[in-house]
Amino acid sequence: MKLAAFEGLDQTEEGADFNIGGIYYDGENHGGITIPDMLSLLADHDPSATVQGLDSVPESDRPPVAVVRNAFSVMVFIGSGLALLAAIYLLTWFRKARLPRSKWFYRVVVIAGPAAVVALIAGWITTEVGRQPWIVYETMRTTEAVTGAEGIPIGYATLAIVYLGLGSVVFWLLRRLARQPLERELPVDAEVAR
Ligand code: HEM
User: Fold this and answer.
1) Cis peptide before 133, with omega less than 30 degrees from 0?
2) Nearest CA to 6 among 75, 86, 87?
3) Which mutation among 35, 75, 131, 132 tests ligand 1's pocket best, with the greatest number of atoms within 8 A of CB?
4) Protein residue whose Cα sits closest to atom 29 of ligand 1
């Protein structure tokens, strides 16, 4: 079901297509590229293999497809972008023995850091929402596993306060360093030579 949700595959199919990109809403994928039979090939190493669609289980046993599919697309989009960025870097390095010079390359490098965090969260959403409604597949539902743990808001509030505090200190430190960089310490013998 998780794979069917990744791909928004409504019906069980022989030779199922693979969708790259697009946005999933109103029960189907809009836009993107379709590669015929590719999902069967990926899932079973056979282009005419049968891939189970969402219709193979009752609606109450399916994950929320839009969340899973769109989170999966975000992760794959960012992952492919990061791989492309690394490929550009390596190609420049091996062909010209220098770093890339384009401003755009470095702009994208700056975005790559936060984008990797977004991919990470999207990956986690893909995995965890994709397994719903089961906590133990076909045995126990997530709703049955929820405990009545009290004090969770206090735990979260404490965490939030600690991280906000740490974040503020880092922000303050970085601004201070940016305004007034530390003087570079010279090695002792350089000091003597001077
Ligand atoms: C083309 C690129 C990528 C593909 C095809 C891909 C594929 C997948 C798949 C299939 C899963 C689900 C595994 C499962 O639930 O059975 C997954 C999970 C995940 N992915 Fe990606 N991924 C890609 C890029 C990335 C990137 C760039 C990151 C982070 C920087 C990332 C982080 C994660 C994380 C954190 C999970 C959840 C793992 C877990 O909790 O078990 N992925 N990915």
Assistant:
1) yes
2) 75
3) 75
4) 120
